[in-house]
Amino acid sequence: MRFQNRTILMLLNITFVAALIISPTGAFAACDQPDAPDCPCFDSNGVWNPSGAFIQDVAIQTVGTKESCGVNNGGKPYYQMVLGCINEDCALLQAWLLSLTDVLIPIIDVRQAWCSETISYWHRETGIPYSGGYSNCGWHCNWLNYSVGDLKEWYITEGDGGRGRWIEPCDVDYENYVLGVTLPVPGSYVSWRTYDDFNDTWVFDGWSHSLMINEMWLHKDVHSDLFQVKVTLLEGNSGNEVKNEREFEDLLTFTPQGSGWINGNKKIYGFGVDLNSRGQPIYDASRLHLVPWLFVKAPPQYDPVMTTDPIWEQHYRPNIAALKTYAKLVRQAGGEPNVMTSSGALQLRGIPDGNEVNWRFPQGLPGGEEVVIDLLDIHPLPIKGIELKWGTSALPGDYRVQYTTPGQPYQEAIVPKMPDVSHLPSGTSIPVPAIFNSSATGVQVRYVKLIFPNTFQQDAVLQELRFHYEQGPMTDSEVCPFKILGDLDYNCRVDFHDVALMAGNWLIDCYLTPQKPACVPE
Fold this sequence. Notes:
The protein folds into 3 domains: about 30-110, no CATH class; about 150-320, no CATH class; about 340-375 and about 380-470, Galactose-binding domain-like (Jelly Rolls, Sandwich), CATH 2.60.120. About 20% of the residues lie in helices and about 20% in strands. It contains 9 helices and 17 strands. It has helices at about 10, 55-60, 75-80, 90-100, 115-125, 150-160, 310-315, 315-330, 495-510; strands at about 165, 190-195, 200, 210-220, 225-240, 240-250, 265-275, 290, 340, 360, 370-375, 385-390, 400-405, 410, 430-435, 445-450, 460-470. It is globular. The relative contact order is 0.14.
C-alpha cells in the first residue's frame, strides 16, 4: 500500500489558480470527485467524528462505513480513514483539491486498501497510545501506518522503551500467560498473512489484513489452567466496509502452530499491544471475560513453529536497529526534534500534531522569517516529503520548503501554489504537500527549513506537520466476508491468482501426499 508515484514533470506545471466558490448552502461545486460526499451515490453510514474512552467505543461508531459510488477503495472510507477527515466539510475540501488536477500529487494518500489505515484512524481518534495515535513526533511523525508491515515495524520499534509491544504468534503461551506480553488484550492489533505450512514461510502476495480485538473470553478449567481464548474482532475493508462480525473460537488454533486456517490459506501473523506511559497494556477490563470450566481441561499442547519471512528480512528488519537507536536518541533529547527560528519574534515548540501543538504566525510578522527543524540525526527511514495542514484563517503565500543532510546544501522541495481559501467552513484545514525529490521516492533528511519571504497579512496557524516516509513493500488487500466458488484467496473475485493456488494445491495433494483421498482414482 504505497503512495502511487506519478510523473513529476507534470507536477512542475501544476499551479492551483482557481478560486474557491461556495454556494449559499456551504457546499462545494457538486461532485468534485465521483465519490465525494455531495454525490447522490455517496454512502454516509457511520459516524464522522467518533469519540469514546476506549478504542473499541470509537471503532464501533464507525461500523457500517462503506465504499460507495462504484469507486474502488473510495467513498467515505477514503476521506475518513485515509485522509483523516472528521466531518463532511473536510471531505468536500479534499475532493475539491483533488479535482483541480488530473495528476495526483505523489505525497497525497491515494485510494488504496484501507484496513491498516482504519486501525490507524481509530488510534488517532482515541488518542492512544500517544495523543495522536501512532504519531510520535520523536521518530514517527505521522498518525498513519499503511500496511501490516508498517504496523509491525512501528510496534517493534516502540517495544524498546516506547508505547507499544509486538507479540509473535510463536510467543503466545497459555500455560504461563501474561496479558499484553504472551497474550494480547482487548483493543490489541491483530494481523494475518498468507502462510505456507509446507515450508513454514510467510508468503508475500499482497493479501495481508489488519484487525483489532473487541472482546476476549478466557476459558479456564477447575485448576485455573487456561485452555481456550475466544475473541471477537473489528475490522475495516471487510466486504468494502467496517464490520464487527468476525470471531475466532481460539486464538492459538489460528497461529502457525495450530490446525485452523483463516480464509483457506492464512494464519495470524502477530499482535500489537498499546502501552501507557508506565509500560502497562492499555485495555478495557470490562471487555475481558473469565469463563470457568468445572472440569479438568489441559491447555493445548503445541510446539512453537519457527517461521521464515523473506519479505520482512529483506525490507523491514534492516531498519529496526537504526530506528530503535534513533528513537532512543530523541527520547534522551527531550522527546522531540529541535525547532529553531531565525528571530525572536516567533516562539515555537514541538512539531504541530493536529492536537495539542500548533504554530501561530501573527499578523504583521516580517518577511524573511525561517523555521528549521533539526531531526537530531539523519532519519533512518527515507523521507518522501512533508504535509502542512493550515487553519482556514489564512494560508501563507509563496513560502518555500527545503531539506538537507549535514555538510550538504539545502535542496528545494516542490510546493504547489494554492487557491484562494479565505472562505472555507470553520473546522477544516488546508493540506499542502512539499515533495522532496523529483521521483517522489524517499531521500535522507536531517534538516527541514520553512522560509516565509513575505510579511504575514493575517494570523496563520499551522495545525499539523506530517512526515511521509518511504517504507517497505508489504501491501494489504480487501477481505471478502463470503465465499465465491473458485475464490481461494477470498478477495471477492476469481482471477489468475486463484488459478495459481488451485494448481499449487493440486500438485501438493496429488504428488507430495498421494495417499490423500482426492488423489485416489475412482
